[in-house]
Amino acid sequence: MPRNSILIAFVLFSAVARAQSTGTIGGFVTDPRGAAVPAASVTATLVSQNASRTATTGADGIYVFNAMAPGTYRVSVEKPGFQQ
Asked: What is the Cβ-side half-sphere exposure of residue 18, based on CA atoms within 13 angstroms?
């Protein structure tokens, strides 16, 4: 079975609330032709703590992580039939 590539785009938003700050990581996953990739598993890992959260893309390829701690994240995507 040929392996396709996944393109991941993401946007980082942040919000500050009294002495505590969190942010949102969101974006969309597409295949090389630009079509949305639904039901892909997206993992965001806070590098400094090696702590991960996972979300699944919707039918439109969109994913969102809310209330994320400040820091540097590694974001990866997996779906059977596609390369990570």
From this structure: 0
What is the biggest distance separating any 2 CA atoms in the chain, rounded to whole angstroms?
52
Residue found under tokens 């079975």: 1
Report DSSP state, residue 19.
T
E strand or H helix at 27: strand 20-30
Rounded to whole angstroms, how far apart are CA atoms 9 and 63? 10
> How far is the C-alpha of 83 from the C-alpha of 4, rounded, in Å?
6
Q: What are the tens digits of pLDDT across the range 30-58?
A: 998 999 999 999 999 999 999 999 999 99
CB 28 within 8 A of CB 61: yes
pTM: 0.77
Looking at the chain, the number of H-run helices and the number of E-run strands are 0, 6
